[in-house]
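Chain A, query sequence.
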Amino acid sequence: MKYNLITSSIMAFFLMAGATATSNAAENDKKVQANDFIELFEKLGGKHPGYRKAHANGMCASGTFVPTPNKHFTGAALLSNGELPVSIRFSVGGSSPSSNERAPGARGMGMQIQLPDGALHTFTGNNFPVFAGKSPEVFYGFLSTLLPDENGNADPAKTMAFVEQNPSLQANIAWNKTAKTSASFANTEFFGLHTFYFEQPNEQQTKFRWNIEPSLGVKTLEKAEADSMPTEFLADTFAQQLKDETVSFTIMASLGEAQDSDIDPSQQWPSERPQVSLGTVTIKTSGGDACKNTNFDPNVMSAGFTPSADPVLKMRSPAYAISFGKRLSGQ
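Chain A, predicted structure.
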């Protein structure tokens, strides 16, 4: 288990550290504060003032969203206003602005759709289908095991023992072990991980999780292929694809059933759950700094949509706000 392979994906959600949490027995019931997480990630990935604390290496894009109205989201403003503008940020896992694009691991996506009344609807996802732990406490405990000792040496046995004691980590760890390098952001599927609800006019709720499917298909690189690429190739590859063909993504909603967890992002719902399209995002431009100061908070949604009680999801808003303020102030 390599440090950079594992942390490249799990650091994608470090921002959940923004609220106070009480850890489990493995952490000796220590209360964890937001600054504890910030310090932890700086120890793991280094300090990079003025950049996002995770997924620091990224690129902006813009486009349009064309909705696909359906009976499960009747009356949703998001799906009732025709074509809407979209701001997007694609990114590579890790806290360094020069994260290795040839390495396997996390790729992220933040997307904000603007409605005519100024309301925003945010989708934020990653290329891994399950989160590292059922709660922020498990996540923090796991990351803590990756810290090196006073001699600069990590203890893999300590990490593996924690993983064995916390089964909710195991699906994400398994994904990391087999992850390959994304050939392009345009060839990457992104998963929202969390559960959301939509309140329909008849007071029935639609329980769903979303994923975003690339029209150009999912493509990855074998190690030899990745090693032959330039150190930074993702932005140029994406720009060339925009010139040569249409780059688009379909936002899909998986419809949950009563037995499907709405509070545990480490659990993947059964693949046979029905899916419906929410709409298609077509990319028009890439590059520039338009998304640099955008706060892609997944709890910012348009009318009718609400977040679940997932503790990981709930912690992200205050954490994003804290991190956003630090980034703008050059910290």
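Confidence is low (pLDDT under 50) at residues 1-29. Residues 3-328 form a domain with the Catalase HpII,  Chain A, domain 1 fold (CATH 2.40.180.10).
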